[in-house]
Write a structure and sequence with these properties.
The protein is an alpha/beta fold. It contains nine helices and 13 strands.
């Protein structure tokens, strides 16, 4: 019993010693001129998070904030012993209202602070060939028969009969973005697998190009239906370029990760 108390006392002394050493090191570090400059300057480079917007069953994703990691930044700048904004190290700060906590809600568009749009192809015809041959970023709805491993376009599981099997295939190739573009046949499966639920705000069909062009803006998600004409798709792409919007994969427009840091 005596040895037990000896060991316990030794453990407490070691724990206190470790805590005290850490505390002293922290005080010394905070008094360092470089660390003081980092603390003074960091606010100029930080970005506040943006909450997701929820409207009933629908959601527009938020954006993470960007916060300077003081300690990592200090060690990154230590060799030069001078402040340099190019050596800042950032942490992502999750918004209070986040898509990640509301995955049962339906995404209609990306955050309006993003100067980006995302196109989703409904079928595998000439429109798909045009996107692939011109290296234009887009996502495409696939089933087991049409899925091509590690193709140029981002594959989105849309197989009502073989949903689980295709999920496994996408997982094996590390292509699964865990996104569903909703229709009545797969919604329950999407909810079961906790996938992100997307219902595009805009759908290009055979005769509504003018309306689509008028409504394209930051964060737009546009479904190119199998009824759309390639000639209209080309005009749509010109409009996107004219508005100086970047075309990205669906997974990139719904993510809350902030690329500014």
């Amino acid at each position: 019993m005596k040895k037990y108390y000896q060991y316990l006392g030794l453990a407490m002394i070691m724990a206190f010693s470790f805590y005290y050493t850490e505390k002293v090191a922290s005080i010394v570090l905070n008094k360092n001129p470089l660390m003081q400059e980092i603390k003074k300057e960091k606010k100029s480079y930080e970005i506040e998070s943006v909450n997701a917007i929820i409207d009933g069953e629908y959601i527009i994703p938020g954006l993470n904030g960007i916060e300077v990691n003081e300690t990592e930044t200090y060690y990154n700048m230590q060799s030069e012993a001078t402040f340099n904004k190019y050596f800042l190290v950032y942490d992502q700060v999750k918004p209070e209202i986040s898509l990640e906590n509301n995955k049962d809600k339906i995404i209609t568009k990306g955050n309006s602070k993003l100067h980006k749009v995302s196109l989703i192809l409904e079928s595998n015809g000439v429109i798909k060939d045009y996107f692939v041959s011109n290296k234009i970023k887009a996502s495409i709805l696939v089933d087991k028969a049409t899925y091509q491993k590690k193709g140029f376009l981002e594959a989105i599981n849309n197989d009502k009969d073989n949903f689980k099997s295709l999920e496994n295939s996408l997982n094996e190739t590390r292509e699964n973005k865990n996104i569903c573009v909703l229709n009545a046949d797969i919604k329950d499966k999407c909810l079961k697998y906790h996938n992100y639920l997307v219902e595009p705000e805009l759908v290009l069909k055979e005769s509504n190009l003018i309306d689509i062009k008028k409504n394209i803006g930051n964060g737009s998600i546009i479904l190119i239906s199998n009824r759309a004409k390639l000639s209209d798709v080309k005009l749509l792409l010109k409009e996107i370029n004219y508005k100086d919007l970047e075309m990205v994969f669906l997974s990139e427009i719904i993510t809350e990760e902030n690329k500014e840091g």
